[in-house]
Every structure is written in structure tokens, then in C-alpha cells.
Design brief:
Largest sheet: 5 strands, parallel
Helix content: 40-55%
Number of helices: 11
Strand content: 5-15%
Order of helices and strands: HHHEHHHEHEEEEHEHHH
Shape: globular
Structural class: alpha/beta
Distance between the termini: 57 Å
Mean pLDDT: 96
Low-confidence stretches: none
Radius of gyration: 19 Å
Strand order of the largest sheet: 1-2-3-7-6
């Protein structure tokens, strides 16, 4: 590819700058949530740091009006691209009544918003995979032009739900994109202790679908892989497994101490490939991101994060009397 790689992929300058801003917004919300957690203001953080490029690159390759996303708990970049706001995510972090994900009833990272085709996730890992397959089956039966996009970590690719979902989608040639965000660690278990095969994408052949492994720190490479998978799905050619390779820059969650299972110099080394830094560098090299524009984007993102934090912190909690709401049909 030439130096203007995004144009070869059919992306205009405006779109890649929007991608960068979305990645930065996810990062800044996440960083703020860690500060709030350490200040005792929000109970829990499960981080997207290091995976924003894969999430945003993939979401940009989908049709936000027609397609359904079934994100896993780190997918802040996906849900923001599909229409969630910083305020929506902060309301969830503070567990307030207005939280669109669960009305303040669920811990952060359990995304769900009907208006933006974000299908609610449930707490056991990987359960979103068969759900995505079911949505795709329903769409096919109803003759709808939709693709479902589901994400999970490489640890999840060892769960039964992944294998059952992938097999069913393969047999019935369903329009599903399975995206494994391989960040090298299933909590504390490194990738080499999780898989006997070299790559998660090696598993695709067993389910009769193509499998690709791409650089998860490069949103354009992920965009290309997911765009092609979406086209295959729309053409009735069935599912695809895409594996994005990145690195989890934070502990597994705010309750985890990663110093017990990985060296700090490993994390320091990985930060050299931080997708926020490398993508900004690409945009600078092709003359799209001036110092002035970078400051403007940064200030716009930070004002969104500050407003969202202030709003959510001052918003009301759900009434105690409403605890049983949404549990039983009314």
C-alpha cells in the first residue's frame, strides 16, 4: 500500500480523523474511570486501553443503521462508534438510574442499547457468541440485510459457547463476524498456556469459514478485514473469524494486580506500539494531523469527558422501589 493507505481502502480524510478521535475518546473515558475508581467514586473498571484501534477500525467497517453488534466488556470503542456517548458510559460507571445499559443495575462493561443496535451482554464470558448467531439466523429467516458482529477475548475462544456458535454459523452459512480481540492474557494466563494451536484464527477451518489474523494496533488493517468479512456475509457466503493481535496495557480490571503475572518492562515495551500513538503518527506523516488540529481534537474529547463525569456524578440513583423492575414481565 502507498502512504495514503486509508484512501486505498475507500476511506476519506474526514473518516480517518473521526476514527482517531473515537479511539482517543475511548482512551480518555477509560483513563478517567480509573481515576474515579481509585478515588472511591465508581466501583469497577474493565479497560479498553490498547485495544481501541481494533474496536474502532472494526466498527467503522459495519453499517450502523442495519448491523447488530454484540460487544464484550472491553468494547468501549465499538459502542461509542455505534452511537453511545461519553455520558451513557459514565452513567453506567456511576450506576445511576439514567444508565441506558441497565438503569444502574449492572456493573460497567455490560453494554446494551436498543436504539443503536447494541445487544445487551450478560455476565458469563462468551455468552454473546451464540446470541450473535441467533440474531443472524433470525435476520436470515426474515430476509433482512443485516450482519451481526461479535467480539470476545482469546480466553473466550476456549469456551464451549464459542465453538457451538461458530459451528452453527458455519453449517447454516450465517452472516456473522466473529472477532477475537487477542490481548495476550486471559486475566493472568498468557496466550501460550491457553492454545495448542499457533493462532486463534487457525480454528476457523474446523467450522468451514475463513480465518484471518491481523495487527490489532492498526485500525486500517482491522477495517479492511472486517469490511471484507461483512461483504462476504451480505453475499450469503457465511461467517468469518477475524483475530486482532494487540496488548492489554492495564491490569485485567481495577480488582487485578498484573504485577503478579507479568514483568513491568513487558508492559513498557508494549506501550511503544500503543495504537493511539502509532495512528496519530500515521496521520501526521501524511499531513492530516497538524499540531493545531491535534490540540483541537484533544480539547473537544476532554470537554466531553469532563461534562459526562460531572453529569453522571450528580445524576440520581435508581429508586429502591424499582429494584424488581425489568426482572419480570409487567
Amino acid at each position: 500500500m502507498t502512504e495514503n493507505r486509508h484512501q486505498e481502502l475507500g476511506l476519506n480524510d474526514e473518516s480517518v480523523l473521526e476514527m482517531y478521535e473515537m479511539m482517543l475518546l475511548a482512551r480518555k473515558i477509560d483513563e478517567r474511570m480509573w481515576l474515579l475508581n481509585r478515588a472511591g467514586k465508581i466501583p469497577f473498571v474493565i479497560s479498553c486501553q490498547g485495544q481501541e484501534a481494533a474496536q474502532v477500525g472494526a466498527a467503522f467497517a459495519l453499517d450502523r443503521n442495519k448491523d447488530y453488534v454484540l460487544p464484550y466488556y472491553r468494547d468501549m470503542g465499538v459502542v461509542l462508534t455505534f452511537g453511545m456517548t461519553a455520558k451513557d458510559l459514565m452513567l453506567s460507571g456511576f450506576a445511576k438510574a439514567e444508565d441506558p445499559n441497565s438503569g444502574g443495575r449492572q456493573m460497567p462493561g455490560h453494554f446494551g442499547q436498543k436504539s443503536n443496535n447494541i445487544v445487551t451482554g450478560s455476565s458469563p464470558v462468551t455468552t454473546q457468541v451464540p446470541h450473535a448467531v441467533g440474531v443472524a439466523l433470525a435476520g436470515k429467516m426474515e430476509g433482512k440485510d443485516l450482519v451481526t458482529f461479535v467480539t470476545f477475548g482469546e480466553g473466550s475462544s476456549n469456551q464451549g459457547d464459542f465453538h457451538e456458535g461458530a459451528n452453527f454459523a458455519g453449517v447454516h452459512k450465517l452472516p456473522v463476524i466473529f472477532m477475537c480481540e487477542n490481548n495476550k492474557y486471559a486475566i493472568s494466563v498468557p496466550i501460550e498456556k491457553q492454545l495448542a494451536c499457533e493462532k486463534v484464527s487457525d480454528r476457523a477451518i474446523g467450522y468451514g469459514m475463513p480465518g484471518y489474523t491481523v495487527n490489532g494496533n492498526d485500525p486500517l488493517e482491522v477495517y479492511k478485514a472486517v469490511k471484507e468479512a461483512a461483504e462476504r456475509a451480505r453475499n450469503g457466503e457465511g461467517p468469518t473469524l477475524v483475530e486482532t493481535i494487540s496488548y492489554r496495557l492495564t491490569p485485567h480490571s481495577s480488582d487485578d494486580d498484573d504485577r503478579s503475572y507479568r514483568e513491568s518492562n513487558e508492559v513498557t515495551e508494549a506501550k511503544k506500539n500503543d495504537p493511539i500513538i502509532t495512528f496519530a503518527s500515521y496521520l501526521r506523516n501524511i499531513g492530516l494531523l497538524s499540531e493545531e488540529l491535534e490540540k483541537e481534537i484533544d480539547s473537544r474529547v476532554m470537554s466531553q469527558v469532563n461534562e459526562a463525569t460531572e453529569y453522571a456524578e450528580n445524576a440520581a440513583y435508581a429508586e429502591a422501589e424499582s429494584a424488581m423492575k425489568y426482572v419480570y414481565a409487567e
